[in-house]
Amino acid sequence: MSNCQSQECDCITCLPEGDLLRLATSGDLPLLERIERASQSHPWSLHQFAEELANPVSRIDLYLRDGLPAAFLCSWLIAGELQIQNLATAPEFRRQGLAARLLEYVLTRSRRQRLDSAWLEVRISNDAAIALYRRYGFADAGVRQRYYADGEDALVMGLSVESKER
Q1: Annotated active-site residue in 51, 81, 133, 162
Q2: What is the CATH topology of the domain spanning 2-116?
Q3: What does the pLDDT read at residue 102?
C-alpha cells in the first residue's frame, strides 16, 4: 500500500489494483448507509454514522473499487487501544478480500501509532467475520450475553497489536 497523495493526514492510500482507501466524510453518509443496510441485519442509521464522523476518537476508512464505495471499517483510537466498531462490505464486492485488506490496513496503521491492542465485538453467529478476525490473530476473550438489540450474544475478541506482525 502506498500513499497517492503526500498529505500529513494519510487520507488516501492506493492499493495495487488501483483501488483506494480514504477517510469517509459527511458527503459519504448515503454511501455508508447503503453498504450498511445491504450488509447488516440490524444496520446503523444515517444519524449513527454522522455521530461517528463527528466523534474525535472515531474514524471511518472507506474502500473504493473502480471508484465505487465497496466497504468500510469504523474504528476508535482511544487510550492506546483500537476498538473496531463496524466492518461491512457491499454484497456485490464480497468474497474479494476487501474486508481483509481494510483490517490489515487499520492494524498496520495501529502498529505505526504504537497502539497496544485491538478489540471488537462480533455477532456469535457471524462465522465468516469470526474466521477473518482469527486469521489476523484475534483471540476469543469472552461473550457478552444478549449484547445486540435482537438478543443475540456478542463474541469479544482481542489482539495484542505489537505482537502480531503480518
Answers
A1: 133
A2: Aminopeptidase (3.40.630)
A3: 94
